[in-house]
Amino acid sequence: MSPDTLNLFYEEPDPDRWFPFDRYPRRLIRLCVRGRSEPRGTLRAFMNLVEGLDRIGVPYRINDYRWLRAHRDELACVFGKPHVLDKIPDETPILFGTSIYSHPSDNPQLPRLRKLKQVLVPSAWVQAMFEEVWPGLVTVWPVGIDTERWQTPATAVRDVDVLIYDKIYWRRAYYEKTLLEPLHAELARRGLRVETLRYGLYREEQLHALSRCARSMVYLSRHETQGIAAQQMLAAGVPLFAWDEGGLWQDPQYFPHAVNFGPVTSVPYWDDRCGARFRDGSDVVASFDGFWRKVEADVFKPREMIVENLTLEKCATAYVELTKRFG
Question: DSSP string covering 129-182, please?
Fold first, then answer.
């Protein structure tokens, strides 16, 4: 094989729970009851990296631990959860990321324990947060979006005025009262046709189908490291009305007792072509008025931003350059 073949490592954590090896029957039961798992988050990002490498013709191995044990000086590209590090030889150089720890305070001593060449994170605000613990070790690399799949035919009929993408799960009762209720009231007042997808309760093909018939999307997420679902819709030409409150990172596992970091954003890759943003329920009505006038005038061009910056090919090429730089 070519010496430039990348050594990619990705595994979803699936430990035994009640007795040794019970993960295997649990996988079978999940498959029978729920069907195949959805490629969200980390898995979707890894799949997009692999597809991008295929398109630019860069070879790779996936989870070839035997090869790595025989070639311990080669760079290991550990993409995903940190439990994979336990299977990598101690002396092997590692490009670690992007989807790793939620916060480096989970393992602040890791750079002293493993031969980390660099840690990759999806966006600039995450880089700033991680570098508070791992200074000088963190680089921004976003995964690409499949702009071929997420391209809406010119003949598509956009008969859904607003798709609400609801990713509110922290302090939900509070935001239902202060954000969702005024939003729904305004959409109803205008007589707009509305569909809703709740994060974790839909399949990707549903989002894909709606990308071809939605005129706009209200994106409700407190903050995002990259926001792949939002970027898929942008690639489909759907402008966003994005809740972007900023402020502090509020993951309750860390905030406020362990981590106080800000500012964050729900749309880390954004320009005026993408749509409009609002801060909270107090300005949702006024902000939506300006947004909707521009939707009706076809002012926004969100796909242009994605094609210029975040295609599978461009991001895969950037990843290969990082492996050369740090390998």
Answer: HHHTTSTT-EEE-PPPB-TTTT---TT----BSEEEEE---SSHHHHIIIIIHH
Q: CA-to-CA distance for 76 and 94, rounded, in angstroms?
A: 5
Q: Tens of pLDDT along 69-78?
A: 999 999 999 9
Tokens of 213: 């018939």
279/113 Cα distance (integer angstroms): 41
* pLDDT, tens only, 248-260: 999 999 999 999 9
In this predicted structure, the answer to whether residue 2 has a pLDDT above a threshold of 80 is no
- Report the CATH superfamily, name and number, of domain 162-309: Glycogen Phosphorylase B; (3.40.50.2000)
Cα–Cα distance between 179 and 218 in angstroms, integer?
A: 12
Task: Assign domain 6-144+312-326 to its CATH architecture.
Answer: 3-Layer(aba) Sandwich (3.40)
